[in-house]
Amino acid sequence: MDILAAVTENSIVLKFEYNEEVINKVKKIQGRRYNPENKCWYFPKSSLREIHRTFGKQLAWHGEPPKELQLNKYSRDVVPWEDMHIDLSVAEQLKLPPFPYQWGGANFLFQKKRAMLADEMGIGKSLQAIVAFLLLLKERPSAKAVVFCPSSLKRQWHAEIKKFTDLEGIVIDGNAEERKKQYKEAIKHEYQMIFLNYELLYYDYEDICRVVNDHCDVMILDEAQKVKSFQAEISALFKGGKKTITDKKTKKKTTVNYEGLDTEYRWFLTGTPMENKAIELFNLFEIMRPGYFGNFFAFRNRYVVLGRFKNVIGYKNQYELHRRASEYMLRRRRSEVEQAFPDVMYSDVILPMEPAQMMAHNFVESDLEKLIEDRKYQGSFFVPEDIEDDEMQEENDSNIILGRFNTLLAIADSLELLEMSNSMYAKNLPKRLGIKKKDLKASAKVTWIEGYVKDMLENDPNEQVVIFTKFERFQRILRERLSKHCPVLILNGAMKTKEREQARLDFVNGKANVFILTDAGAKGLNLQCSKTLINADLPWNPAILEQRNGRIIRIGSKHEKVRIINLISQNSIDERVYQILREKSALFEQIIEKTEAETEAVLRLNKNIMKKLLGKKAS
Q1: Is residue 198 classed as helix, strand or coil in its secondary structure?
Q2: What are phi and psi of 491, to 5 degrees?
Q3: What is the number of other CB atoms lying within 10 angstroms of the CB of residue 606?
Q4: Can you tell me whether residue 6 is helix, strand or coil?
């Protein structure tokens, strides 16, 4: 059936005859709203590519299709990896068979030597890297791989190689003396894979350089966006060369000459190769394939639009950038791999704030606007692009503007967070505004979450839900309230690695109905035992939101359908954050996501691999 489509100044509008299948697809697109008067669906403009991928040729555009969908000289007719040879010869070495698309990803990494797997969360990137390494071992039996990953994923990686192969691996962990012994042990022939977390580079750099540069053939960076920042020290640790380091306390500058890490094969795994800026993609490639995009200034001049003060105000030549990047970057979406992913229903729940919340929010917002005007900031809002949420504090002497923003975010969650804050501004706010003690505990989000959990338990006492929040303090509030109804587990950055893993295992094994996590748990954890995830608040960064949601949208989910619920306080900073998420996602879509030709190529490649697995001739 045809779907009438049009573009207005602010929206994309779809209209169609009632069809349950189409409606179910529409409901998977975030930011939608339905107008019963004209029977039209409205979507933010940033949803354009998702709408096009979902409905494709069913769309009947009023007038010319949007220019973003029109082909240009950088849209591909031929996909460079489409016709690559697929080697399945290591299948007998695997305890469990990979999906066809995973064979494709493994061969892509192996044949390209230095490449990035940028599949959406939950598609199984680690297995594809393991299979790629098996392909290398077939040619080079003495090969060794080192895996850099977040601390919480080291043991999960080790468990993965045991689950799928007979390879031997060693996890680098413990105190300095223990790690010293482990590095010596790791270079022995009996270990094919070494697992360590990025932070160890700051403490054991000489030992790691010796192990990697002298003994390893492959360097795998899991959650590779960790090295996205061009100026960060961790990037210099990988690239090598001179780096000026400033001591945060003394402000003293010292120049350090780093050796750099060098292996013949470099495989980067990330669901978010670009989180905020195109420059991040440049830096990932600079570590993976040095010089591919030229130097920093050449890249900036070609693809970045600079303002009067050399600030980034936009991007150009996005299709060219997409084409060049995807020579060595393979990305598949869940919808393209045709595997056992659960259907996802997204819901945005808009909650009116309590009167005391609204009063505090309006006061801080007014205060913030005065500060911005005094400091001659342009626009009504300053958006923290490069600061991770767990680094943000209510008050920060170096950036009082950012402190006020975070106070607004806290108020939108619960006024109780003000009392629990280390910031004197936030702590004194309730008294300054004459807010009564009993009103501090009034929170629309807490009330809604508690009601949801009670209803959930009434329907099924064994059902589980995952809840994310950026604030460890809000985590404490929710835990205290929800513990009255059922067992609750938590995970946050203050917990040790083993404590985090134990909490995850306990939840997966059904020892609690509710698992509340901060963004320390947003990466890599498998929580597909739950069919509902609630974002109690939203991060600035769409990549972190995608990471959160990916905890339950995974292969192996026992649920046919899962639900993602975003809680948004009405007329608050939450709504501005949501808008920023949509804008950043639109930029990601333009540079990272595939063209229609590439999407079709992925589907053809998967079908050909499936036929090869079945012993039939590929088409």
Answers
A1: helix
A2: -145, 130
A3: 21
A4: strand
Q: Check: CB of residue 518 under 8 Å from CB of residue 471.
A: yes
What one-letter code names the amino acid at 323? Answer: R
- Count Cα neighbours of 363 within 13 Å in the Cβ-side half-sphere: 18
Q: Reduced to 3 DSSP states, what percent helix, strand and coil does the chain have, rounded to the nearest 5?
A: 45, 15, 40
Note the pLDDT of residue 375: 46
Calpha distance 478→485 (Å, rounded):
11
Cβ atoms < 10 Å from Cβ of 439? 16
What ranges make up the beta strands (E) of 150-217? 169-171, 193-197
Closest CA to 186 of 166, 158, 163: 158
- Bridge partners (DSSP) of residue 255 are 244
Residue 488: its H or E element: strand 488-491
Q: Give the strands of the sheet with 169-171, arranged side by side.
A: 169-171, 193-197, 145-149, 218-222, 265-269, 114-117, 329-330
SS3 assignment, position 373: helix
Bridge partners of 267, per DSSP, are: 115, 220
Residue 115's identity, in one-letter code, is A
Distance CA 236, CA 261 (A): 10
Residue 382 · residue 402 · CB < 8 Å: yes
Give the type of residue at 158. Answer: H
CA distances from 500 to 127, 149, 152, 490, 515 (A): 22, 15, 7, 8, 11
3-state secondary structure 127-165: HHHHHHHHHHHHHCCCCCEEEEECHHHHHHHHHHHHHHC
The Cβ-side half-sphere exposure at 434, using a 13 Å CA radius, reads 0
Torsion on CA atoms 388, 389, 395, 401, rounded to nearest 10: 70
Mean pLDDT by 10 residues, the chain (619 residues): 81 88 86 87 82 80 65 39 77 89 92 93 88 96 96 88 95 95 95 96 96 97 90 90 78 88 96 78 93 89 82 78 89 70 82 92 86 51 38 45 84 93 88 90 93 93 95 96 96 89 92 95 84 91 84 78 91 82 60 52 53 49
- CA 215 from centre of chain: 31
CA 396 and chain centroid, separation? 26
Separation between Cα atoms, residue 601 and residue 82, nearest integer Å? 6
Strand partners, 566: 348, 535
Distance (Å) of CA 244 to CA 63, 200, 205, 253: 55, 20, 17, 6
Question: What's phi and psi for 501, nearest 5 deg?
Answer: -65, -40
Which run of H or of E encompasses 344?
strand 343-351
d(CA 258, CA 239): 8
- Return the DSSP state at 520: G
Predicted TM-score (pTM) above 0.90: no
Cα–Cα distance measured from residue 111 to residue 134, given in angstroms and rounded to the nearest whole number: 13
Please say whether the beta carbons of 179 and 206 come within 8 A. no
* Phi and psi, residue 140, nearest 5°: -135, 80
| CB crowding 134-166: b at 16 or more within 10 Å, else e | bbbbeeeeebbbbbbbbbbbbebbbebbeebbe
Phi, then psi, of 403 in degrees rounded to 5: -60, -40
